[in-house]
Amino acid sequence: MARYLVTGVAGFIGRSIAAALLARGEGVRGVDNFLTGKRVNLVGLEAMEFMEGDLSDPAACARACAGVEIVFHEAALASVPRSVADPVGTNVNCVDATLNLLVAARAAGVRRVVYAGSSSVYGDAPTLPKHEEMLPNPISPYAVAKLAGEHYTRALPASTAGDGGAALLQCFWTLPGPTSHYSGVLAIFCRKMLAGEQPTIYGDGEQSRDFTYIDNVVHANLLAAAAPAEKVSGQMMNTAMGTRITLNETFEILRELTGFSGKPAYAEGRAGDIRDSLADIRLAGELLGTRLSPVSARGCAAPLSGTGPAAELSRACSRVAGQAKWPVFPHLAFFSDGVY
Length: 340
What we know:
single chain, alpha/beta, Rossmann fold, seven-stranded parallel beta sheet, 12 helices
């Protein structure tokens, strides 16, 4: 019987969490509807029990939660531009899906839900770094949906007894990593530049992001699942790098790594995009820090095996994490919310 459920398991983060759990011998069930997830991400997860299903269907949620102890809720329609174009679809796949999952988890006696939040909920408030006591200021339907998920995750399990309703809310930030099919700025830039095509920067390129490596995201989730309920129940924490880099600086690093000789195209900024993201990660360090393993960005950027465009993309994205003026980070790390 699977002990862990990973939603959005065919996505970049969900797949990475599932792989880490399997590597330590855990029983894992994964669920995905392949709306944005990719079947290729399931390669190597053959030991996992996989269920194709849509979390907007309460019956699918009930089947997914049956018998599991801990849920990592990574599934979402993670795109700001898409949410602006189709806010109803984003609501269904983020808000409705999360509520259905929480109801099913409560009915199944799930002990803990680890919810993947988003830095987009902070919006464009000028305060940097962003900290957990700030009032949310979502400026896109995606951010509103993720904030609603936070509130549901914090409120609904509170009505169950004991540790059964414990939830950790992780506010994830923008991340790179090997094998990523995530459609964030690093992947888009790399694919374009490796193909000799001109990438586009929306805005002036001086907007900044707190990029965080995928291994840290996985580590943070595993710590969240094991932390004492009295520390983390209902607690949202920034899980990020605590440093930032502009898109112009990112482009220059990737140009060197990919051998691209051109310049970026600049276009008008997009609706719903935030200007700067930088996380205050002290709370995560306080609540989980005694159990954290320091991870070096350069260590994460160790050369990957393989050849061809996909391998080059992975190497380039990984090396950005190692070369973007970032130190060893002793705390945690973020997820990627498509906010570029």
